[in-house]
Design brief:
Largest sheet: none
Order of helices and strands: HHHHH
Distance between the termini: 18 Å
Oligomer: single chain
Number of helices: 5
Strand content: under 5%
Structural class: mainly alpha
Radius of gyration: 12 Å
Length: 78
Amino acid sequence: MSEEYLDPVVVGEVIAHFRKQRKLSQEVLSGLSDIGRTHLSAIERGDRKPTLETLYRISSALGISMSEIVAEIERRIR
């Protein structure tokens, strides 16, 4: 049985996709979600994985549910 891991690059791409779709800069989204811009940048690059709390803050700031983000991640990894 092979172990599977969630690719942090895909997670970052999805978050960046929704951010750009809403025409928000990283600075604006980080401010709305109360996380540092460098932290958000690292997440979008796939250098860091967001915690559930961070994902919740980002999704709330984007005006979408966490499940929408997760569904898009799942769609891209299949």
